[in-house]
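In the current project phase, the collection of sequences with tokenised folds has grown. A sample record is quoted in full directly below:
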Amino acid sequence: MNGEIRRAKIENILKSSAVPVPGVTLAKDLDVSRQIIVSDIALLRANGLTILSTNKGVITDKEARKLQ
């Protein structure tokens, strides 16, 4: 799987999750290292997606607002 497809999958996972998703979970689901996930999240942020990091994982800003 190339990086573009992987980042699209990460975006879909985060947008469909109502709770923070741990980086380790993303790494296992996508069969890459956690560091690759960290890099992919940085690229998604650089491309305009608002992703918040919490002590329980990462979540999109839209989903975070639903939790409040």
The CA atoms of residues 17 and 63 lie 7 Å apart. The first helix runs from residue 3 to 16. The chain is about 60% helix and 10% strand. The mean pLDDT is 91.
